Amino acid sequence: MKKLFAPLFALALMYTPLCAENITVDNLNRNYIVYAPKNLGAQRPLLISCHGMNQDAGYQKDMLKIEAIADTAKFVTVFPNGIDRGWDIGGDRDLRFMQALIDEMVAKYDIDRNRVYISGFSMGGMFTYHAMNRMADTFAAFAPISGYPMGGGNYTSSRPVPIIHTHGTTDDVVNFGGVSGTMAGWVKRNGCPTKATVVKPYRAGHITKHTWGPGENGVEVVLLELANKGHWISNDIVFTGEEIWNFCKRYSLELKDPSVKFTSPDDGLRYVTFGGASEVPSITLKATASDPDGEVTKVAFYLDDELLTEMTEEPYTYVLDNLSKGTHVVRAVVTDDEGRTGSNQRTIYVEEPTGSYLLTKVFTSAGSVPEGWSTYDGNEKRTGFSSGFGSGSRVFQFTGEKRDFDWGLYTRNVTGGAKAGYARYADKGTSTTLMLHPGNYQILTRVANWNIETFSPVTVAVETVDGKSVFSETFTPTSNVGNSASNSFSGTWLRKLIFDITEKGRYVVTFYTADAPWADLVVGQAALSRKGNVSAIGNTETENPIVSVEYYSMTGLCVNPTSPGIYICKETMKNGSSRSYKVVRK
Predict the structure, then answer these.
(1) Would you state the pLDDT for residue 341?
(2) Cβ(5)–Cβ(122) below 8 Å
(3) Contacts of 362 (CB under 8 A, 6+ apart)
(4) 3-class secondary structure for 223-238?
(5) Cβ within 8 Å of residue 126, ≥6 positions away
(6) d(CA 224, CA 202)
């Protein structure tokens, strides 16, 4: 850890500890700097702000620049010094230091214990996450800056916790790439909607604010994403100290507002229907509600701001029928015996595509299994949206100078079993339902191998949701990424797959690896479209499979397409019919 952080901070301005106040904890002399405004008043809040590794309290105070805010809002800020300019991010030593500091501030400044907040930069941010899991009943809100648990997060707090995390996208010390997994873990722990409310630009064009919430007890998880900012505290346009205070001041351990939480449905349900009107099944709305200092008097459900029903006693349920095409917001609003309210919401999408529909548009978060997709590798099934994965089936963001796609979903077959490795769209248990009416359909796809230089076949199948195959086609990818998302790769052919649907129903699209140990695939692109009515010749695996494939140059010569260029692919079916289309090999 020291080796990682030392180079950046070797030139950091160091402050003498002579101005620090002292306290004895575990027979050790610990020190800190405190800033308390004049005319503070009684029962005021406290913010503890922890420095980064190889820094100190004076440096943290100078960088956070929070004194003017504290003067106006009337709160105390403490800047503690870690031992050897670092923090114990795995044990209890510095947690006991934090508790002793709070006790000291309560005695000296009459601090309100219900409004104590903790923040920290870099390693101090990592320590802030450590405190979430171990001191959630001590701190009312948490504000890490440019730091998260680099070895993987734990999400075991004793209660839902409000979080505001600030991070620069070009941070070369604590990489921004690990933030999404950490946020997702706390979003899930806090019972927040998995879809964030995004404000871009926020204050300026390079700043994006992501807000997940409200979750349990009304908490939110907020990420301030600072484009092209490095490993430092922001004090231009976005002032980190101001953002932290404006967030934290909303929270107290002495909860007063009631809270409501959806137990059904999941957030982000998506119904996609081709070739006919959407047939959305009945959706049961279920919610639980509580009030920490009184009683719940009613819970109301709203659809797109229109009142559906009000209930004065449990169970709080309502059956929603006949959703029309469009994006719908369902809200639950709870009211308590003091007239206070709390709310929660779910978003439901009903889509009827008339053109090409990109199944891979949700590949936007590295280390995740995307919404609407599931994966299986013979040992573990993962269902999206889930994230925080550093190995196994997951999305990669490709960064090679030359690449055929920017994002791809990787899966593998670790056992070699039949159909034991796959990536599947609209599987049971995901948030997406794919309804197909009878017609002729097309899938355009680019699929590569991940780490097989000799290449390994891939099968694309269209199946009923119960597993009956209505179409499948096997081909061998023409590119191999090479076991690193930063590699260059090219030559991934665009495959055109044509099939018929003869019965209306719910279907899935599955990409299978070969039935061999460690066979793999990366789905880089998959677009589905309906081309018209059922074709006259048919083209299903059982009725009319492809029996031969030939490639021709643009001058009409039959060739083996191993070199870059433009070719005509001719596919011949069992009944003698054929189809041709252009392919490009890069």
Answers:
(1) 84
(2) yes
(3) 370, 371, 372, 373, 384
(4) EEEECCCCCCCCEECE
(5) 87, 89, 120, 144, 147, 148, 149, 150
(6) 9
Domains of the chain: 2-248 (3.40.50.1820), 259-349 (2.60.40.10), 357-543 (2.60.120.260), 545-586 (no CATH)
Residue that is written with structure tokens 């006790």 in the block: 103
CA distance 111 to 131: 19
Contact 321, 309 (CB under 8 A): no
Gap between the Cα atoms of 292 and 95, Å rounded: 27
Cα 442 to the chain's mean position, in Å? Answer: 30
Give me the phi and psi of 204, to 5 degrees please. -155, 165
Structure tokens at 19: 């101005």
Say how far apart CA 437 and CA 421 lie, in whole Å.
28
User: Residues 141-174: pLDDT tens digits?
Assistant: 999 999 999 888 899 999 999 999 999 999 999 9
Could you tell me which residues are beta bridge partners of residue 60?
none
Q: How far apart are CA 371 and CA 203, in angstroms?
A: 29
Cβ–Cβ < 8 Å for 367, 393: no
Strands of 502-564, DSSP E = 505-512, 519-532, 546-552, 558-559
Backbone dihedral angles phi then psi of residue 359, each to the nearest 5 degrees: -70, -25
Query: Tokens at residue 491, please?
Result: 């030559």
| DSSP of 183-225 | HHHHHHHTT--SSPEEESSBSBTTEEEEEE---GGG--EEEEE
Q: What is the pTM of this model?
A: 0.63
What's the rounded Cα separation, in Å, for the pair 385 and 371? 4
Q: In whole angstroms, how far apart are CA 422 and each of 56, 129, 511?
A: 50, 35, 5
CA distance 409 to 423: 8
For 265-325, where are the E strands, in sequence order?
269-274, 283-290, 296-303, 306-311, 316-320
Where are the alpha helices (H) located in 11-92, listed in sequence order?
57-64, 67-73
Query: How confident is the model over 347-405, as pLDDT tens digits?
Result: 999 999 999 999 999 999 899 999 999 999 999 999 988 888 889 999 999 999 999 99
Is the pLDDT at 542 greater than 50? The verdict is no
DSSP 8-state class, residue 379: S
